[in-house]
Write a structure and sequence with these properties.
By secondary structure, the chain is α+β, with helices and mostly antiparallel strands. Helices cover about 50% and strands about 20% of the residues. It has a domain of about 80 residues. The protein is elongated.
Length: about 160
């Protein structure tokens, strides 16, 4: 871990300076170091169990740090391990989605298996609809002529 201009290889040493810088409040919203190619930014933010440091690469991530020197560095290391795990899971999901897309493209260009049956049934339905419309016309024909009974209608 690099803090300021110095590179640390021991958790305890890096943690001592890291916590001192975070707790001082003098470096809030400033880059205080680098770890695994990511910038470490001090903040005054407080999380559920302690202060927060921002880890920034292509994105920014809040990482809660510990009150112990070594614990804080371990939390940062664990954050990076979780990123690696998430990357692996995301790559697996991406591969799965590519496979699903390939399958979907194949299905889209396939001819519909029941197209002949659908066509036949659609023709039968059209015939039945036409017959029903004929029956409907027959029913709506005048059965009783109102003119015959107009004298019997009550005004």
């Amino acid at each position: 871990m690099k803090l300021g201009n110095k590179t640390y290889t021991e958790r305890k040493e890096a943690g001592d300076l890291f916590l001192a810088v975070i707790n001082s409040g003098k470096y809030d919203d400033r880059i205080i170091g680098k770890l695994n190619g990511f910038e470490i930014i001090a903040t005054s933010k407080i999380g559920v169990s302690g202060k927060i440091a921002i880890v920034r690469g292509h994105g920014s991530y809040n990482v809660e740090i510990s009150t112990s020197e070594t614990g804080s560095i371990i939390r940062l290391e664990n954050f990076f391990k979780s990123l690696e795990r998430e990357l692996g899971e995301s790559q697996e999901r991406l591969t799965s989605l590519h496979n699903e897309l390939s399958t979907a493209k194949t299905e889209v260009i396939k001819e519909f298996e029941y197209s002949e049956t659908l066509s036949t049934l659609s023709e039968q339905l059209a015939t039945l609809d036409a017959e029903l419309d004929l029956n409907k016309q027959e029913i709506t024909e005048t059965v009783i002529d109102d003119e015959q009974f107009k004298d019997e209608l009550v005004a």
